[in-house]
Amino acid sequence: MEGFLQNTWYMAAWESELAEGKLSRRIADIPMVLFRNAQGELAALVDRCPHRFAPLSMGTVENGNLVCPYHGLGFDQHGKCVVNPFSDKIPAGSSVRAFKVKAKDAIVWVWLGDESRADESLLPDYSFLNDTSTNRVLRDYLKLACHYEYLVDNLMDVTHIEWAHRKTFGGRGLVQHGKHETLQNANEVWINWSFPNVPKQPIPIYPDEQIPWERTDMWIDTRWNAPGNVMLDIGQTAVGAPREEGLKQLLAHIVTPETATTSHYFWGVARGVNLDSEAEDRRISGLLRFAFEAEDVPLVEAAAKVVEGENFWDLKPVHLGPDIGSTRVRRTLETMVRKEADAAKPAQ
Ligand code: FES
Ligand SMILES: [Fe+2]
Questions:
Q1: Closest CA to 226 of 108, 115, 331, 114
Q2: Under CATH, to which class is 127-339 assigned?
Q3: 19 three-state secondary structure
Q4: What pLDDT score was predicted for residue 72?
C-alpha cells in the first residue's frame, strides 16, 4: 500500500519508556523525539535540529527545553526555538515541527496529520492496561523487519495459532471447531470466534491447573482500529455458562510502522489473578515472548520478504474463509489511505 495514514493515532511508545526523559523513535518514516517539559507535559518533535541537523534526541532536557547537543539551540514542547546561545534574537525558520501527543492507558500516542482533526475520542480503548488497582500488567516491545500490515494480518486471523504456535498454544485441533463472525462499525473491525464445548485450553495467565472445568466454551474476540491497533479478548467458561462466570484475559498488540519495511511491535497483557507473583510475571512473559518472537515474527517477516516489492493484491492471495478479518482490515485501511490522499489532491 502506498503511503502511511496521517490523520490517525499512532502508538509511539509505552509511557514508561519516557522515564529517562527523552526517546528517539521513527514513526511512519518521520524521525521523532519524545520528551517531557518542565511541567511534565509530553512533547513530540521532529528529531532534527534546523541548524546543522543533529538529532535533538542526542541533546539534553534543560529547564524543560530540549537543547541541541551540537551548538546549543533550545526548543520548547511546541518545537519553538526559545534559546539561542549566540544572541538574544531567535533566528527565522528555527522552529521544529511538533506533533499532537497524548498519553492515555500508559501509552504515548501521536497524531501525524492535521492537528485540528486529532480527536481524542478516536483513541482506541486500552484502559485495561492502566487499571493497576485490580490488574497486573506486563508490557514488552519487539522490532519487526517488515511492513506492519503483515503482523496485523497475523493478529486478525487466529487460525494461525494451530500451526504457527505448535510449541505453545496450538497443535490441538481447536480452530477447525470454531465459528466466527466479522463485525464492522465505521472503521473499527471485530472478528469474534467461539469454540463451543471443547476440551479446556491453557491460556497464558490461567495455566491448565487453574481452569476448573474439563470442557469449556471458549472465545477469542479481536478488535482492530486503524492503523495497527489490535486488542484480543480471550476466555473460556463452563459449557453453557455466561462469559462473566468464566476466566478471561485481555491483550494489546499494537503495531506502528517505523518505515515501509520495519515496524514497532508493542504488546501488553493484563491479569486480574496472582497479582503479587513475580514468578507468574516471568512465566507469562517468557511464554508470550517466545510465542510472539520465535513463532509469529519469523513467519511474518519471511512472508513479507518473499513478496518484497510486489503489490499484495496483484499476487492474488487465496481466500480460506477464516481470513476474512485480515482481508477486511486491509481493505478498510486501504480505503482510509486512499480517501486521505484524494482529499489532499488539489481540486481540478
Ligand atoms: S545543529 Fe543544532 S544548534 Fe547546530
Ligand atoms: Fe500468533
A1: 331
A2: alpha beta
A3: helix
A4: 98
CA dihedral 196, 201, 204, 205 (to 10 degrees): 80
Cis peptide before 227 (omega within 30 of 0): yes
Q: How confident is the model at residue 2 (pLDDT cuts 50, 70, 90)?
A: low
Burial of 111 per CB tally in 10 Å (0-12, 13-18, 19+) = buried
Q: Closest ligand 1 atom, CA of 49?
A: 2
Which CATH number is correct for 9-122, 2.102.10.10, 3.20.20.70, 2.40.110.10, 2.30.39.10? 2.102.10.10
Strands ordered across the beta sheet of 136-144: 136-144, 263-271, 247-257, 229-238, 215-225, 188-199, 179-185
Does the C-beta of 58 come closer than 6 Å to ligand 1?
Answer: no
CB neighbourhood size of 30 (10 A): 19
Tell me if 73 CB under 6 Å of ligand 1. yes
Cβ of 96 below 6 Å from ligand 1: no
Are residues 229 and 124 in contact, defined by beta-carbon separation less than 8 angstroms? yes
Q: Would you say 32 and 1 are in contact if contact means Cβ atoms under 8 Å apart?
A: no
Does the beta carbon of 51 sit less than 6 angstroms from any atom of ligand 1? yes
Would you give the DSSP letter of residue 327? H
pLDDT tens digit sequence for 23-62: 999 999 999 999 998 888 999 999 999 999 999 999 999 9
170 alpha carbon – ligand 2 mean position (Å) = 10
Beta carbon of 84 within 6 Å of any ligand 1 atom: no
> What is residue 175's three-state secondary structure?
helix
Which residues have CB less than 5 Å away from ligand 2 (the ion)? Answer: 296
Ligand with smallest separation from the Cα of 58: 1
